[in-house]
Every structure is written in C-alpha cells, then in structure tokens.
Amino acid sequence: MPDWRDLEARLSLKFKNPEYLRLALIHTSYLNEHPGIGIGSNERLEFLGDAALGVVVAHQLYEDYPEVDEGKLTELRAHLVRRDTLARAAARYDLGAYLHLGRGEDAAGGRRRPTNLARAYEAVVGAIFLDGGLRKVRTFVRRSLREEFAALRKKGMPLDPKSRLQEVIQSRWQTT
C-alpha cells in the first residue's frame, strides 16, 4: 500500500499535522480487524468534510450563477456533491490505493467502491479543513472538482431524472 505521504504530493498539499490525513484514510472495516490501534475511523472527518464541501460548492455556485434561483442552486450543489461525482474526483487522486481497509472489504473490491471513494474524499476534505481551514478546502475543492464545474458551465444545468421525465411528458402530452 502506498504511503500517505505520497498522497500529499498527489493532492498538492503539505499537512502541518499529517495525522489528519492518516485518519482520513482509515475505513471502519480496518478498525474491526485492528481494534486496539488507538485511532478512530474516517467517519467523523467525513462528516466534517461533507459540511465544508457543501459550503465551498454552494459559494462557488452562488458566484458562478448570479441569475439562478435557490432551488436550482440546490440541484446543482446536489449534483456536484453526490456520491458518483466525489468518487470520480477521489479516483483521479487514486485515493482507493491509500485506504486502510479490512481484508474482507479489500477482497470485495472496496478500493474501487464508489461509496468508499466518495467517503474518503469527504474525509480528506475534513482533514484539510482541520489542518488548514476553509481557504485551503476552497483551493482543493475548486482544483479537484474543476472538471465537474467546467462541465456545468459548458453543458448547462443538468436535469435530474424526475425533471427530465416531466419535460418529456409535457412535450408529448401537454400535461404534468
């Protein structure tokens, strides 16, 4: 398994307290097999990272789309912070290779599982927040989700499946 210090270089970050990054990479399955190591899992960092990520993405969307109402901004934020989007961003940094997983989770493909990758991404964001504050989180999120922000600008507002279905029904049968 690659060393978490190598991950700092991939992330273009240098942690003042590298224990935050180390903790961000510990999956609960690892703790089940190593109960006495005296460190927790990444779940609390994931919680914190989710909140920090939401603030940064919301602020970026607020700035990028001044003409868009709150409801649509909420949809855009949901699109950017959903599991699949975060898993893609995590895969670009190869976060799965750095995760400490239990043997069963590892054998079951846990390093490539979108849920694990998205949660690891959020935990890393939480670690960045604790180590360097919201400004560092903003820099990292804007860089790591650059492709997704660019796709929104290029392709326009994505429609969720329910809205897409409603548009098709209205255009064909003039009813909702």
Topology of this protein?
Layout: H1 4-11, H2 18-24, H3 28-33, H4 43-64, H5 70-80, H6 83-92, H7 95-98, H8 103-107, H9 114-132, H10 134-144, H11 146-155, H12 161-173
Helix pairs in contact: 2-9, 4-5, 4-9, 4-10, 6-9, 9-10
Structure description:
Helix 2 runs antiparallel to helix 9 (about 115-130) and helix 6 crosses helix 9. Helix content is about 70%, strand content about 0%. The protein has twelve helices and no strands. The protein has helices at about 5-10, 20-25, 30-35, 45-65, 70-80, 85-90, 95-100, 105, 115-130, 135-145, 145-155, 160-175. The chain starts with a helix and ends with a helix. The model has no long low-confidence stretch (mean pLDDT about 90). With about 180 residues, it is mostly helical. It is globular.
- Bin the helical content: over 70%
Distance between the termini: 53 Å
Overall SS class: mainly alpha
Q: What share of residues are in beta strands?
A: under 5%
- What does the largest sheet look like? none
Continuous helix count: 12
What's the assembly state of these chains? single chain
What string, H for helix and E for strand, traces the elements in order? HHHHHHHHHHHH
Categorize the overall geometry: globular
Q: What value does the Rg take, in angstroms? A: 18 Å
Model regions low in confidence, pLDDT < 50 over at least 5 residues: none
Mean of the pLDDT scores? 91
Count every beta strand, where a strand is a DSSP E run of 2 or more residues.
0
Features:
176 residues; 0% strand; 12 helices
